[in-house]
Amino acid sequence: MVKGIMDPIPTLVDSGSSKNFLDLKFAQEHDIPLTKLVNPRTVIAIDGKEIPNKIKHRATLEVEVEGWTFDVTFFVMDLGDTDMILGLEWLQEADPDINWKTLEISWKEKPITAKAGKELPIIPEEFLEFSDVFSEELFKKLPEHRPFDCNIDFKEDAELPKPAKVYPLSPIESRTIKEFIDQELADGKI
Known about the structure:
- This protein is extended.
- The chain is an alpha/beta fold and 190 residues long.
- A hairpin with a 4-residue loop joins strand 7 (97-99) and strand 8.
- The protein has a 6-stranded mixed beta sheet with strand order 1-6-2-5-4-3.
- 9% of the residues are buried.
- It has helices spanning 24-29, 88-94, 136-139, 171-186; strands at residues 11-13, 21-23, 35-41, 55-65, 68-77, 84-86, 97-99, 104-106.
- It has 4 helices and 8 strands; from the N terminus they run ββαββββαββαα.
- The longest helix is centred in the C-terminal third of the chain and has 16 residues, at 171-186.
């Protein structure tokens, strides 16, 4: 159930979907407030192809599943016959028990809620005297050569391995790994 909508909503729970999705027509029919995205998002289908229409809106709804309530952010797009998809993002947050024989979702116990305490310092007090070890600048260069360094000896004229693709990554993961590699190259670590 969604707060403000009395009828149960047929929902697809899909661990293959990295995000949560809400059907545009369903959102319009139920006057669900939509927030326009600053940057429209691309969706990659299960076959690896980009869906032509970009996602331009999102909606945050209070969703109740089997007596448990969650605030869920959905990307809004045309889903055809499906009103709502709860994807991996929701599954990881909700962490339900799924009975694959009966296709039922349940939880062992209610979650524990607590208020956040005071923010802890990045470096604990007992390590402050070593704060220079934690500096970003120190990590931008490799350590000095030492007598116990291990050499990696390459065979002369050996054939290099052919470049291989990394396992499939989402666009965000691909962008993140590229930024990391570019930074490591710029710092001279690679």
